[in-house]
């Protein structure tokens, strides 16, 4: 790693770490609040996974049902446990990637899930204000996103678990008042070496990568106070040969270019590289005369070369299915959903996925990463239907509304699936699959994209369920607008939910 590159990264961290609440424009504060609320909802939903529940129950983690000893933070598991900030940041960060619904930034990484768990745990334990938390999240996001966009990682290397830790350390320094460069150096000395093959195989330990990055950020403060030192070159020297010629490391950290405003939110429970094709699939399905998904003989997906890494058949588990574009398309057609439950392994879906072909178009590559275009053609024995999208709904060029994100939050935490959404033909936002024509056609039991959520919307709900939805809506609003919170220990987090398989 050259001295010049190290200086560029350290100056970026120092500039981001110096951000103050007064410097953040109101629209940035509002958007950062949505990133915070969305991330908490995704973490809480992922924390209901059996592996995370069992992990939280392990005595070696030292979690307790009530705060004990030094200032603690809340783990977002069903039992509402408390623990040290480092442990809680690790557990919540691990939970946050189980469902592949965490927001992201192109190219290419997931800054918030590397930053929010650490910032939230430290803010809660230290009694920081909501305004300080939002500033810390924004600063940490800036560092992580700039690093993600400035290095073209080797093809086999996954972006989770390493450079994002520098964002976590920056956020922690903003909250603690410590030197962000010193903490980032220590975090850079504790990286993971992560690879895409773990995603393809469905190795669920892969979900701990973001947890490790958050813990490294929190522990950087602990180690710094104990007198430890670190070196950015410990990890960055490994990826230094892959720095982009048009690196953004030296750009000013300015209010009008903060990267958190250029993120995307996810409405499909799968790798983001699938999302444009899934949005195009929905529109193509709406234009198809045939209403039986099994009558679709061939699904042709044309997209960018970056998405070819998920052009693969899935292994028989619910992580690998999320990293298979053919499986994602097949389950959307056959189950009528792209919510978490739809990615459970099903051999019939895997067989149908073999009807999906994926090719890259060099003309589309020219539009990446500002756009992630995809074109889908559905072919039956009697006809075909084609649709294209430039970016999926939720990308900053097609921004998700606060109402859509609130519904995602509430649906995830009441056992439903986040609604796949997009603009209607008249430019208004609509829930996918709710047009009257499609509703009447599908009432006979045909599947098709996203009708699973449609059925859930039409079903009746007991009063307790309605009450929970309303309560969760209020929690989302409080998390999205934390600026009036004087002490993050009082910030409302989603109420304790029943453990999986345990009646309410």
Highlighted features:
504 residues, single chain, two-stranded antiparallel ribbon, alpha+beta
Characterize the structure shown.
- There is one protein chain.
- This protein is α+β, with helices and mostly antiparallel strands and about 500 residues long.
- The chain contains 19 helices and 8 strands.
- The chain has helices spanning about 5-15, 25-45, 50-55, 85-95, 110-125, 130-150, 165-175, 180-190, 195-200, 210-225, 235-240, 275-285, 325-335, 345-350, 360-365, 400-410, 435-440, 450-460, 465-480, and strands at about 75, 80-85, 300-305, 355-360, 375-380, 385-390, 420-425, 430.
- The strands form 3 sheets. The chain has a 4-stranded mixed β-sheet. The protein has a two-stranded antiparallel ribbon with strand order 1-2.
- The chain is globular, with a radius of gyration of 22 Å.
Order of helices and strands: HHHEEHHHHHHHHHEHHEHEEHEEHHH
What portion of the residues fall into strands of 2 or more residues? Answer: 5-15%
Rg over CA atoms: 22 Å
Strand order of the largest sheet: 4-3-5-6
Enumerate how many helices there are, as a single number: 19
Shape: globular
Counting helices, strands and paired strands, the structural category is alpha+beta
Oligomer: single chain
Distance between the termini: 55 Å
Biggest sheet features: 4 strands, mixed
Q: In terms of per-residue confidence, which ranges show pLDDT below 50 for 5 or more consecutive residues?
A: 422-446, 451-458
